[in-house]
Give the backbone structure.
Amino acid sequence: MPEGKIIKAIAGFYYVLSGNETIQCRGRGVFRKNKVTPLVGDEVVFQAESNTEGYILEVKERKNELIRPPIANVDQAILVFSAVEPGFSTSLLDRFLVLVEFNHIKPLICITKIDLADESEYRKIQQYASDYRKAGYDVLLTSSETEEGVKDLMPYLEGEISVFAGQSGVGKSSLLNVLRPDLELKTNDISSHLGRGKHTTRHVELLEVGKGLVADTPGFSSLEFTDIELEDLNYCFPEIQEKSELCKFRGCLHMAEPKCAVKAACENGEIPSYRYEHYKTFLQEIKDRKPRY
């Protein structure tokens, strides 16, 4: 049986890319019975009724899935944050990074609008970029206006399924327009390509950008840590996880425990204080979360 990847889902139809052909498929009733909904990004087995139509018979095991956009098997999240307008927020970025790490999605930090930053702001951004690189993250500084750094994104997209995420107004659409001008994504009004605004049709589609696929509905439905447990948070901060191996006590949460290597690393400047403060804030948020029954 032929296999392929769902690249678009709309009105009960699934468009499966198999080789160079796209087959319009419906799901078999067995999916409804087993409560399996095929998602964009799924690897599937299908039966072709003709050159252009068929039925999905099997959805292969997923490595991850997101609720919004409803997409499976995401390889990486391009976390888009502006240097200014709106101002750069390490707290919001760290929140995104925790969610991405928890979902086993590779993050890439992309700081936009660097052409609008004055000298002082630019120095701060460079310091933040240095901090995150030391923590093990790739960071790109870009400007859609001057196109500085934007083409550096292309190698990261190759062979991957990527989702662009970040707060409104940071320039996600502008970046995609530079990478693929024929998309003509609107940057002020909400774009019909993004499935919002005047058009009521809401669907997810994987667009070819360079030699990769990009989901055209950026965003996460929630930035709350609903599924993350206290012991998980450690693993979502790579530099904290690395230092925690040296803590005296196993299961150290790096709060009040004695001989904590993470706190020592913060005191001597190996871990930026703001990263540790965000870790503590998020830990408290998880502690205060109402239990689910």
Notes: Residues 190 and 197 are 5 Å apart (CA to CA). Confidence is low (pLDDT under 50) at residues 188-201. The two ends are 42 Å apart (CA to CA). Residues 119-134 form the longest helix (16 residues).
